[in-house]
Amino acid sequence: MQGEKHRWHSPALGQEMECEIYGHAGRPVLAFPSQDGRMGDFAGFGMIDACAEFLDAGRLRLVAVDGIDWQSWTNAAARPAERARRHLDYDRYVMDELVPFVRTATGRRTMWVTGCSMGAFHAANFFFRRPDAFDGVIGLSGLYSATSFVDGQWDDATYFNSPLQYLPGLADPTYLDRYRHSAIAFAVGQGSWEEDCLADTRALEAILREKGIPAWFDYWGADVAHDWPWWRKMLPYFLDRLAV
Hints:
Blueprint: E1 4-10, E2 15-22, E3 27-32, H1 41-44, H2 47-50, H3 52-56, E4 60-65, H4 80-106, E5 111-116, H5 118-129, E6 134-140, H6 156-159, H7 163-166, H8 173-180, E7 183-188, H9 195-210, E8 216-219, H10 228-241
Parallel strand pairs: 3-4, 3-5, 5-6, 6-7, 7-8
Antiparallel strand pairs: 1-2, 2-4
């Protein structure tokens, strides 16, 4: 399936950025790439084809988002504070450039977010930080803390982009009410390479339960590994059951 590719120079990032929109109608869903991934990965690893029935039926417009992880969280050459600051540039790109573009392109004010592995980290973080823009999240096999990216060196930019750290202290009723009226689903396998993701998913579930936020946490079997073949099964499963 061919998507509509869009490219512009991002003032927030100071570089060219791309996105690709699939589908002709329906709810827009931003899809963040996995660690160090690019916009084309979602199509390249078969996720677009896995969602074809929703795209063809006009239920979904999937927006494949470009990433810059190698400039931010996974940039081993930069100090942890610099990694977090570069992520803030990415945050501005998404919120000040990409989201307004998607709103204009789709005619929808709010949208969902999704992603696999580190893409799930980004999806969860954008959802919890900006529930005014995002009213649904599907996170697959994600880590939800920035701990492993900053070598234990925390500052405000890191803390407020690490859901497992900032969510326990979040008490703003406006945010909590929006979460309670959103579609929230997180899934993780219990097989190979899922151990850390499983622990973070359980921790996130405990936080949301304590705050009275309805959310669907789904723990797949011991044969379910941290890999694309399983994510190709997971995403359409949740899109269908959440009635996208």
